[in-house]
């Protein structure tokens, strides 16, 4: 390396650029928790400005007018809000219900039972097909007849009943219990006043706990106060020990109550606990009421009508089964056997379903005990399975909880979008004046690159959004046609996965497959149909939509895409998966190679415009 090149490499401008970009990347990393609001705000601004710019250019070519720009901005924003409100009103309540149901289901899940059900419906189905063939084969018919003659009808449902019961309770909790709890909570918090009720609750529940935690300290304080008080004649008389301790403890609890009320923070926390205890008490009372029982009956009958295969029993039979289940398999089977007429079509279909569930469980148990492959799984299942399921459940519950806060974040992003777009022309002029300020070097280094990067992100995500909407709508039709539950929630994964190259279709297929396997009427056949439908949708997307809509803007080799996604996910999580490829395209094609990207980046034109502007 020559002396001149070394001097250039060590020049102040070179290190200044590195320092500016390092500072920018560091700030972006530190603010990654605010990415959602910032990113959605950017996309909405890009969308609004694209529409406003197009309309403004047609209505007033040449010089932009502030009044026209603001009028078009408000009109576009109103239309966008109306569309979002309409969509949210249509699918919002059911989407929230499905999120809450899945959260409740995750809290009640038994890892071993879920793993056993997964094995029964995958390994068990394969083994049963191999052992007995289809339901038209002679082996199948003979085994079914023996199953019925042996009086085993009900064994299959006995194994599946806990999962069915949990599924129903979680769904009912999401649809009814949550709303009823919130109603009781509002009633309690709006209709109770702090007074004697709180004092009585505190002295009965919380004061003994606080007294026990610092007993010696409180006793010492009480004794010190007693020594400072003058003795009266009636106090010189001997007092029974039990009465003395009761009086002393009551005085100390009253003092603790006074100390709590003197501390606003502690008092507010305890008041909240008191209100929650009232809510819990009223809820327990309400659970025993006829209104609650009727609500659950109505919910059960609705689900029974929607899914007679997965929930084949009437409500009264279901109550009998729930009562008989703790008494063992024989008691449960007796209720099942008398639940339907012996020669009806429904009884024959239920018998086949029960036979298949019991046979799959039996074959899976034999495989689990004797197969070498199962032996390898057993070494890890007992220790790793609860930990893995717990971690996945916690991550899923966290994700679903965040989805429930989505309306607030979207509202914040839309408000920011309105403020930014409404005064965009003046903001653009103000940003242009920064070139003449003391941070001109920072502006010259960062802003042109950010403009190109913003164009790339806006263009690519606008194109991907069209594809995501297409994939989501087709997936929704597929799930509805196949009868797969939680369709709106699953389609949310499809929508997000559509923005992730290569891995997106795989990541969104996993929860759909699991749902198809584990729902009450789930099976490996249903999962295979779902996978086939997803692959067909993906094939249509990659063959027809992506080439026409996205083109080669984000084209990278699949191996490089996987490497980029792995690195992005490690450092930025979901945002690394969503933005990893656009960032890599920008760095490779703009920063390193300086290749033109049609409609987004033209090196000669952008550099000349930068020099003029």
TrEMBL record:
- Record keywords: DNA-binding included? no
Record key words, sorted: Membrane, Transmembrane, Transmembrane helix
Location of this chain's protein in the cell: Membrane
Q: Which InterPro entries match?
A: AI-2E-like (IPR002549)
The record's section on Pfam families has:
AI-2E_transport (PF01594)
Its main subcellular localisation, reduced to a broad class, is membrane
Q: Name one GO biological process term.
A: transmembrane transport
One cellular component term (GO) for this entry is: membrane
In the bilayer, the protein is annotated as: Multi-pass membrane protein
Membrane-spanning parts: 20-47, 67-91, 463-482, 489-510, 522-540
Q: Does the keyword Membrane apply?
A: yes
PANTHER family assigned to the protein according to its UniProt record, in alphabetical order: TRANSMEMBRANE PROTEIN, TRANSPORT PROTEIN YDBI-RELATED
Q: To which protein family does this belong?
A: Belongs to the autoinducer-2 exporter (AI-2E) (TC 2.A.86) family.
Q: What is this protein called?
A: Pheromone autoinducer 2 transporter
